[in-house]
Amino acid sequence: MRTHIVEAIWLNDAGLCSLEQLAEYSGLTRAELQDLVEMGEIAPTSVDAENDLYQTHYIVIARTARRLRDDFELDRHGLAVALNLLRRIRDLEAELSTAQAKLPQ
Fold first, then answer.
1. Which DSSP symbol is given to 47?
2. Is residue 40 part of a domain?
3. Whole domain around residue 42: which residue ranges?
4. Is residue 74 part of a domain?
5. Handedness of CA 17, 19, 25, 26 (dihedral sign)
6. How far apart are CA 13 and CA 11, in angstroms?
7. In which element (H, E) is residue 18 found?
8. Helices 30-39, 19-26: crossing angle, 10 deg rounding
9. In the chain, % of residues over pLDDT 90
10. pTM to 2 decimal places
11. How far is CA 62 from CA 2, 100, 103, in A?
12. DSSP code of 44?
């Protein structure tokens, strides 16, 4: 019998991770993560510029960015457009769910 050790991360607003950890978990480089920060897709929660901390839910965004980059060979600008469209779709789906919940059954 083999034992597999798995590291799990709780992806929520309360958990924090460093840029290095975000790079490790997402597969992106520090420079690519800095691009995501400049695009406004992820934002540090701390005010200390040397030790920026990020909410762990940004790991999902960073992994999505890596998959888009790898699968579609997107450059920085293409990645920004794709992430923006995905965010807009999520927002519209949330609005639709809210509107449907208000309809009488």
1. S
2. yes
3. 16-102
4. yes
5. positive
6. 7
7. strand 16-18
8. 110
9. 71
10. 0.79
11. 32, 31, 36
12. -
> Dihedral sign, CA of 70, 75, 78, 79?
positive
Q: Where are the alpha helices (DSSP H) in 8-104?
A: 19-26, 30-39, 58-72, 76-102
Kindly state whether residue 6 falls inside one of the protein's structural domains. no
Phi and psi, residue 102, nearest 5°: -80, -15
Instruction: Report the number of distinct structural domains present in the chain.
Output: 1
**Who wins on pLDDT, 49 or 102?**
102
Tally of CB atoms within 10 A around 83: 20
> What's the whole-number mean pLDDT along residues 84-91?
96
Say if 22 falls within a structural domain.
yes
Asked if residue 82 lies in contact with residue 68, where contact means CB atoms within 8 angstroms, the answer is yes
Structure tokens of 30?
A: 């520090």
Per-residue confidence at 8, pLDDT binned at 50, 70, 90? low
Strand partners, 55: 16
CB of 64 closer than 8 Å to CB of 83: yes
Query: How many residues belong to the chain?
Result: 105
Average pLDDT of the residues in 16-22: 92
